[in-house]
């Protein structure tokens, strides 16, 4: 170790979804049958390795500054390694996870460690983070992190660092995946080809965090990364880009170049892919087996109100059918409870899921994430059910809690209709049917559906508890 400065980069587990799958309420008895059953399911989910490695920390830990050594600690799998002394501990903070992040930061600062906070929440709300950090890093930190490490080395750390502009992604910055323990994740082949989003859906803030302009890495750089990664890990690749098909020309060039390497990959795309036959065919040839698509809403009124303007709903079903026919399994994510939704919406979603044979339906409740336009609007309309001035009051959960009053549906009706919808969609027999019918990645489709059968049962219980405790 010598006299090198030691830096630890920490990723926190979320309390809900793939990391947690636990009730928001205390389980009645830690040793009761239900608690034991839930614990076994949680362990099973962990062992099936849904966990996606934290790419942000892989990128930061790959920034080389002489005299500084960095390590990643993923608290989803390991305790904080306090057996070593750290000169700086960096924590990635997402909105919805702030209480946990701040509690952790405060506790390690009490032990005498210096803490750097960065990530989407710090970029959006730096002031709320200031009192929990020695160092705040605002924005995409690819370049600025080197400055922090240099200052750490020279004992001249500043209180705050800010990226002057969005990093130029056309510059080569090789990412090292060997910093992760391979056995913990379903893959360590995590790649991002570009950042920024031209759309402005009102429930998202990626266009604020990463800008409206799509910045892309060079195709050569990405291809080199795929080759380098595949030497170390032969498993699947996951492209974390929000819309891997958004820039058709770029995607065509990239995935055509990847065809000879015989990789298998998953990613996230818009349903527009169903109308891009050449790209769809190239995706399949290059090894694409499953994609997550944001359907969000099939109600035209909701799509208009929430500015989900890409892909009109009339084309959605056809697009999904085309993608599945080409051999790609689809995870389709919906939001129920948008402003154009009524009590007729669940039946329409159910019909849509059956008609398109969607492989994994994700049935979400709108999360009014602070910093989004929808949060500001619901706040002005007095419809939020949590204190909008307390950023730690907003927590991210997976359909387990309703945080606002839907426009056209009363709260009890909303909870009842949402619960009925998820109970209709997620049964063990449906999970089996979807797994068998999936055009590819059958095991993953089956596992996800089984996991959701468990998770949405938890969500129904929690929502009912929310209603009875806080009607
Ligand atoms: C893949 C992904 C996941 C994966 C992996 C998580 C991860 N962060 O690596 C999984 C499935 C686990 C996940 C879970 C969640 N996610 Co997510 N996820 C994404 C997605 C699609 C890509 C993330 C990514 O790899 N980006 C690439 C990296 C390079 O960018 P970055 O993370 O922003 O990091 C840069 C800066 O933020 C900064 N930075 C980040 N961390 C740190 C730490 C330090 C110390 C410093 C100095 C700097 C720094 O520097 C990085 C390099 O420039 C994004 C959408 C997006 N477009 O970013 C959503 C996104 C990050 N997720 C989001 C959310 C809400 C969640 C969950 C809370 C949801 C849940 N189920 O509970 C959890 C939280 C998980 C957690 N434990 O913190 C939101 C965050 C919004 C916000 N305001 O905070 C996003 C932006 C999606 C959205 N549209 O709103 N997610």
Can you walk me through this structure?
- The protein is an alpha/beta fold and 471 residues long.
- It folds into 2 domains: 5-162, Rossmann fold (3-Layer(aba) Sandwich), CATH 3.40.50; 187-469, pyruvate-formate lyase- activating enzyme (Alpha-Beta Horseshoe), CATH 3.80.30.20.
- 39% of the residues lie in helices and 14% in strands.
- It has helices at residues 33-47, 55-61, 98-110, 120-124, 126-129, 144-153, 206-209, 219-232, 248-258, 277-285, 300-305, 313-325, 345-356, 373-380, 411-425, 428-437, 442-469, and strands spanning 5-11, 68-74, 88-92, 115-118, 135-138, 160-162, 189-191, 194-195, 215-216, 237-239, 265-269, 288-296, 329-336, 360-365.
- It is globular, with a radius of gyration of 22 Å.
- The mean pLDDT is 90.
Write the layout of secondary structure elements.
Blueprint: E1 5-11, H1 33-47, H2 55-61, E2 68-74, E3 88-92, H3 98-110, E4 115-118, H4 120-124, H5 126-129, E5 135-138, H6 144-153, E6 160-162, E7 189-191, E8 194-195, H7 206-209, E9 215-216, H8 219-232, E10 237-239, H9 248-258, E11 265-269, H10 277-285, E12 288-296, H11 300-305, H12 313-325, E13 329-336, H13 345-356, E14 360-365, H14 373-380, H15 411-425, H16 428-437, H17 442-469
Parallel strand pairs: 1-2, 1-3, 3-4, 4-5, 5-6, 7-10, 10-11, 11-12, 12-13, 13-14
Antiparallel strand pairs: 8-9
Helix pairs in contact: 8-9, 9-10, 13-15, 15-17, 16-17
The structure holds cobalamin.
The site of cobalamin has 41 residues, from helix 2, strand 3, strand 4 and helix 4.
């Amino acid at each position: 170790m010598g006299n090198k400065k030691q830096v630890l980069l920490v990723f926190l587990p979320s309390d809900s979804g793939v990391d947690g799958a636990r009730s928001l309420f205390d389980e009645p008895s830690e040793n009761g049958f239900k608690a034991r059953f839930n614990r076994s399911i949680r362990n099973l989910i962990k062992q099936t390795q849904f966990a996606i490695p934290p790419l942000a920390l892989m990128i930061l830990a790959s920034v080389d500054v002489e005299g500084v050594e960095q390590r990643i600690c993923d608290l989803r799998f390991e305790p904080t390694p306090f057996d070593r002394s750290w000169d700086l501990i960096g924590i990635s903070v997402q909105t919805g996870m702030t209480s946990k992040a701040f509690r952790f930061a405060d506790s390690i600062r009490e032990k005498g460690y210096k803490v750097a906070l960065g990530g989407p929440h710090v970029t959006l709300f730096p002031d709320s983070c200031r009192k929990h950090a020695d160092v705040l890093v605002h924005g995409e930190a690819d370049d600025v992190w080197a400055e922090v490490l240099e200052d750490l080395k020279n004992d001249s750390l500043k209180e705050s660092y800010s990226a002057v502009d969005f990093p130029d992604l056309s510059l080569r910055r090789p990412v090292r995946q060997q910093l992760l323990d391979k056995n913990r994740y379903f893959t360590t082949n995590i790649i991002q080809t570009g950042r920024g989003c031209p759309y402005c859906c009102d429930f998202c803030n990626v266009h604020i965090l990463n800008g409206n302009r799509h910045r892309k890495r060079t195709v050569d750089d990405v291809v080199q990364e795929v080759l380098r990664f595949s030497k170390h890990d032969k498993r699947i690749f996951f492209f974390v880009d929000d819309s891997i098909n958004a820039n058709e020309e770029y995607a065509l060039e990239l995935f055509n170049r990847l065809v000879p390497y015989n990789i298998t990959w998953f990613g996230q795309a818009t349903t527009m892919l169903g109308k891009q036959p050449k790209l769809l065919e190239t995706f399949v040839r290059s090894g694409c087996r499953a994609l997550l698509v944001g359907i969000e809403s099939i109600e035209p009124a909701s799509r208009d109100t929430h500015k989900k303007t890409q892909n009109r709903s009339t084309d959605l079903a056809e697009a999904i059918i085309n993608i599945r026919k080409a051999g790609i399994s689809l995870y389709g994510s919906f939001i129920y409870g948008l402003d154009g939704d009524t009590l007729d919406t669940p039946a329409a979603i159910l019909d849509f899921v059956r008609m398109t044979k969607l492989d994994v339906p994700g049935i979400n409740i709108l999360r009014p994430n602070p910093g989004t336009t929808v949060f500001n609007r619901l706040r002005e309309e007095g419809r939020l059910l949590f204190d909008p001035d307390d950023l730690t009051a907003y927590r991210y959960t997976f359909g387990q809690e309703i945080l606002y009053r839907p426009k056209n549906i009363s709260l009890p009706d909303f909870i009842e209709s949402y619960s009925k919808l998820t109970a209709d969609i997620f049964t063990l027999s449906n999970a089996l049917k979807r797994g068998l019918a999936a055009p590819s990645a059958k095991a993953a489709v089956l596992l996800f559906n089984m996991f959701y059968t468990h998770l949405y049962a938890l969500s129904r219980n929690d929502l009912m508890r929310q209603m009875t405790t806080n009607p």
